[in-house]
């Protein structure tokens, strides 16, 4: 079983860093206010407000900042400010030996799927959830509250409306997943994770439909679908198409490959690049129930 980092308590220090795209201090002020309202003390890493083209500082700076927060025993959680691109560039520069002696929560999504998977490969839970850059976005209050509950170790249970493509059934397994394009990118690397016996969740943004199909072909051919306990399909936001239409939606593409197997599948789960982005604890054992009433996801 993956190790669960200690839950946060009022008075704890948390750090915000950039492992990918740059962000200004001003853009993080609403998130700092929210985190402080939870009783937390917020530290902004040196990568915040740093710039190297689109990145929050060059690779060395971003890796150094993240490493400092990993190694600092006073920091009890690391929140990655925003996604974009850049985390895979620094993952092999990081040393998790002190983290393994004193685990702490790491949270983010999108490009931060890299960290979620790498930590699970090492045997630690982390949080796939909303990032500080978008804490104050309209309609995102439930996502922020779900992150708070995950960080503070409070009970979490999700119920989602039924979807026409759902496949009914019940499954139990550790949660694994995140951004589809990142999951494919991690294949064959030291951050690659096994999906066997686990509940896989997927989301993505602005991918061409043929690319979604290509990535699903890869997941299927590499065996990542064959032994799943269950599949949760989240937001596939703003999909793109070619002049000659691909002919299927993102969900229909995924269904093409998921239907080859017998595990339960839940579509329309509120996770991904939209305000409704509920926190999921990667590595936590969960029970997925899909029936005519909809989908429920509970930790067990």
Would you give an account of this structure?
- This protein has 300 residues and is of the alpha/beta class.
- It is built from nine helices and 13 strands.
- Strands 6-13-12-7-8-9-10 form a seven-stranded mixed β-sheet. A six-stranded mixed β-sheet has the order 2-1-3-4-5-11, with helices on both faces.
- Strand 9, helix 9 and strand 10 form a beta-alpha-beta unit.
- Helix 8 runs parallel beside helix 9.
- The radius of gyration is 18 Å and the shape is globular.
CA-atom Rg in angstroms: 18 Å
Biggest sheet character: 7 strands, mixed
Mean of pLDDT:
98
Overall, the morphology is globular
What is the percent of helical residues?
25-40%
Number of helices: 9
Structure summary, number of beta strands:
13
Please trace the helix and strand order, writing H or E for each element.
EHEHEHHEHEHEEHEHEHEEEE
Task: Order the strands across the largest sheet as they lie in space.
Answer: 6-13-12-7-8-9-10
Structural class: alpha/beta
Query: Proportion of β residues?
Result: 15-25%
List the uncertain runs: none
* End-to-end C-alpha gap: 12 Å
Summarize the topology.
Layout: E1 13-17, H1 25-37, E2 41-44, H2 59-71, E3 75-80, H3 87-90, H4 97-101, E4 105-108, H5 113-122, E5 126-128, H6 141-151, E6 157-160, E7 169-179, H7 180-186, E8 199-205, H8 209-221, E9 230-237, H9 250-258, E10 265-267, E11 280-282, E12 285-291, E13 294-299
Parallel strand pairs: 1-2, 1-3, 3-4, 4-5, 7-8, 8-9, 9-10
Antiparallel strand pairs: 5-11, 6-13, 7-12, 12-13
Helix pairs in contact: 8-9
């Amino acid at each position: 079983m993956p190790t669960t980092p200690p839950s946060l308590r009022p008075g704890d220090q948390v750090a915000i860093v950039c492992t990918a795209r740059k962000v200004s201090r001003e853009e993080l002020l609403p998130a700092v206010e929210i985190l402080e309202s939870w009783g937390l003390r917020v530290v902004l890493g040196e990568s915040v407000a740093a710039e190297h083209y689109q990145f929050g500082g060059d690779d060395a700076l971003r890796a150094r900042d993240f490493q400092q927060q990993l190694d600092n025993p006073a920091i009890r959680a690391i929140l990655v400010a925003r996604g974009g691109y850049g985390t895979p560039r620094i993952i092999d520069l990081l040393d998790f030996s002190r983290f393994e002696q004193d685990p702490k929560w790491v949270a983010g999504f999108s490009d931060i799927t890299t960290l979620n998977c790498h930590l699970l490969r090492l045997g630690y839970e982390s949080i796939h959830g909303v990032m500080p850059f978008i804490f104050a976005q309209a309609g995102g209050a439930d996502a922020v509250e779900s992150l708070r509950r995950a960080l503070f170790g409070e009970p979490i249970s999700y119920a989602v409306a039924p979807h026409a493509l759902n496949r009914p059934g019940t499954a139990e397994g550790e949660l694994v997943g995140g951004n589809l394009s990142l999951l494919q990118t991690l294949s064959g690397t030291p951050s690659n994770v096994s999906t066997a016996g686990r509940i896989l969740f997927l989301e993505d943004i602005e991918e061409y439909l043929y690319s979604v199909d290509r990535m699903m072909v890869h997941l299927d051919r590499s065996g990542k679908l064959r032994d799943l306990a269950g599949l949760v399909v989240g937001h596939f936001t703003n999909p793109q198409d070619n002049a000659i239409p691909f002919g299927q939606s993102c969900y229909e593409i995924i269904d093409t490959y998921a239907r080859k197997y017998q595990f339960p599948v839940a579509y329309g789960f509120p996770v991904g690049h939209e305000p409704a982005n509920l926190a999921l604890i990667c590595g936590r054992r969960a029970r997925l129930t899909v029936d005519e009433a909809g989908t429920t996801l509970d930790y067990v």
